[in-house]
Design goal:
The chain has 125 residues and is mainly β. The chain has one domain: ApaG domain (Immunoglobulin-like). It contains no helices and nine strands. It comes from Anaeromyxobacter sp. (strain K).
Length: 125
């Protein structure tokens, strides 16, 4: 699990290996993200940027609008949660990134997604 807070936006991520959807050389992980506005000003998530690393050092960058087809607007005290997935060629790796947030007044900032592990149980000591 990882947690980061940027300008009142808390991002928490938990990942899980999905053996039923994996096979040798293709390891599927789901991750659940909770984005909470702990600040005093509304903010909208408009885009995402993920950096995905596998155990071989291969790096993939994923950039796009919103998350799971949405651009959630969070009032103070509100949160948004979603689950997505990632496929690696190796049994472990990591993800990290940022969400581009925009305040109602137009101020934009990047909310940090702290690095979190993607690990098949029993593969690391």
């Amino acid at each position: 699990m990882s947690t980061a807070v940027t300008e009142g936006i808390e991002v928490t991520v938990r990942s899980t290996f999905r053996p039923e959807r994996s096979e040798p050389g293709r390891f599927l992980f789901s991750y659940t993200v909770r984005i909470a506005n702990q600040g005093e000003v509304p903010a909208q998530l408009v885009s995402r940027r993920w950096i995905i690393l596998d155990a071989n050092g291969e790096r993939e960058e994923v950039v796009g609008d919103g998350v799971v087809g949405q651009q959630p607007h969070l009032e103070p005290g509100e949160h948004f949660e979603y689950t997505s997935f990632c496929v690696l060629k190796t049994p472990h790796g990591s993800m990290r990134g940022t969400y581009r947030m925009v305040r109602d007044g137009g101020q934009a900032f990047d909310a940090t997604i702290a690095p979190f592990p993607l690990v098949v149980p029993g593969t690391l000591n």
